[in-house]
Amino acid sequence: MKLLALASAFILSICTTVTAQEFSSVPGQGRSMVVTNLGIVAAPQFLAAQAGAHILEEGGNAIDAAIAANAVMGVVQPYVNGMGGDLFAIVYEAKTGKLYGLNSSGWTPKALTIDYLKAHGVDHINPIGVETIDIPGAVAGWDALRSRFGTLPFSQLLAPAIYYAQNGFPLAERNARYWVAKSLMQQPGYKETYLPNGIAPKVGDEFRNPALANSLRQVAEHGRDAFYNGPMTETMVKFLDAQGGTHTVEDFRDFQPEWVEPISTTYRGWTIYELPPNGQGIAALAMLNIMEHFPMQQYGHNSADALHVMIEAKKLAYADMYKYVGDPRFTPVPIKQMVSKELADKRAKLIDMNKAACQVVPSDIEQQLDAHGKTTIYLSTIDKDGNIVSLIQSNFAGYGTGMVAPGTGFSFQNRGAGFQLTPGLPNSLAGHKRPLHTIIPAFMEKGDIHIGFGIMGGWNQAQAHAQFVANVVDYGMNVQAALEQPRFTKPTFQGCDVEIESTIPADVRAELTKRGHEIHLLEPFSFSVGQGEAVVRDTKRNVNFAGADPRSDGEAIPQEPTTK
Which of 415, 446, 448 is nearest to 433 (CA)? Predict the structure, then answer.
């Protein structure tokens, strides 16, 4: 009866009561949250989630579980992430209540500059060319997380990934659907690694990658040096040089991830955290600041008014992000101003509720950002003590370049495709510079409730974060319901085009069209709007909750109790 009373009170006062937020579901919610006093791993592939949960059962914490799950993800979903990509994370330390941000995005080779490319006749970045391969940051990110917060050795954390790479695993449904990248068939090492015998694996077909197992074993034995300062490094550099790259052993050896302070804003009493630039998380905060000026709850969930506000807020927030964000080590980024309520007040006044804006604040930037990268993985973990990891990892566009160095078993990212070749801009190419990044983990909290969440998908991510937050805060949904809801995405930076899942009602779509939005319809639970996970800690009751997006092969899997 007490539980029912709490739930009823919450429905009557969505924006003021926090402790009961987990109990509010919505009609048609496809699955229940996972609820336990022990740990949970929510990942976009069930083998990875299970591996992380097993690490918790072996005595590891949320950080250990996140590393183990991420390593397995690189084996079972190489078309979105792996050792050749980058990594970002937010760690919530339960005993102190502090947040720690990790930026392990790689930099360009020191010798790769605009002048170098122009001297070699290159005036446009090939999205799968060797010039897009930055130094991968994933392994350094694992090392930084484990060194600061982990409790178990790499040999234990990487054991599940090594097993699946060496012994194989049968492909799940979405594995098979996205496995083949036809545009990469001629990339060196791609077919040999991912299409055994030249045949695309189908659902249930077993896939092995013994070369990747060997690379993981080297890291398990020698730590980060195996990747950045050892024989594997020399193999990678020799291969990249043969493709025309400028990479050196020193570029790998000198790379270090960076611990950063998360940035934040408030949204109707909640505090929302993202990582600072060079990522796009600042756009999610700016969107929420603009949305706060409108009565979203009164409009109704996924109504024409609510969607119109969010789509228009996206355009305004992304315009500023596009203009100002780059690697802050090279160009100052006005973070304080960009997340200020004062700027949001001015931007909100630009929204016409009756008409979509097909062009927002004029920009003097000549070259449009490439919306090429839309594939990433996001996972979140929580342990019995309430520590949370919000982690995201990516190759940028699918397999990235699709290039695989002999004997390594993983493809190199193409994150450098996001650079611009016009000098003097925040995101202009330079040596040892990190590009404007799409991948962003997130965190939100109010009172006793702490949520680690994220939704992958290129430039979709910041706008998807804002939609998730609105689902929780404005519409009182639990995290599972919030992840399941139909979403929109606008991958471009100009125009009135917007992609919307077909589960948005037809009358709502018609009203948006009337206001000038050019709607491109997506299938239900579309890959284009991203896949997300979320974990929740209720510190008052010491209870953990989690949700997993049905747009993936993923699950939220709880830790089993040990009986020893």
Answer: 415
What angle separates helix 62-76 from helix 138-149, to the nearest 10 degrees?
Answer: 160
CB atoms within 10 A of CB 23: 17
Q: Are the C-beta atoms of 366 and 322 separated by less than 8 Å? A: no
Rounded to whole angstroms, the Cα distance separating 478 from 7 reads 12
φ, ψ dihedrals at 18, nearest 5°: -105, -40
Beta strand 86-93 with 98-104 is antiparallel
Q: Beta-carbon neighbour count of residue 46 at 10 Å?
A: 17
User: What is the residue whose two structure tokens read 């970045």?
Assistant: 125
3-state secondary structure of 29: coil
pLDDT tens digits, one per residue of 502-541 = 999 999 999 999 999 999 999 999 989 999 999 999 999 9
Distance between CA atoms of residues 157 and 150, nearest Å: 10
- Residue 1, classified by CB atoms within 10 Å of its CB into exposed (0-12), middle (13-18) or buried (19+), is exposed
pLDDT tens, position by position, 365-414 = 233 344 444 568 899 999 999 999 999 999 998 999 999 999 999 999 99
Residue 16 has pLDDT above 70, yes or no: no
**Which helix (H) or strand (E) covers residue 30, if one does?**
none
Amino acid at 432: H
Amino acid at 296: M
Three-state SS string over 450-494 comes to: EEEEEECCCCHHHHHHHHHHHHHHCCCCCHHHHHHCCCEECCCCC
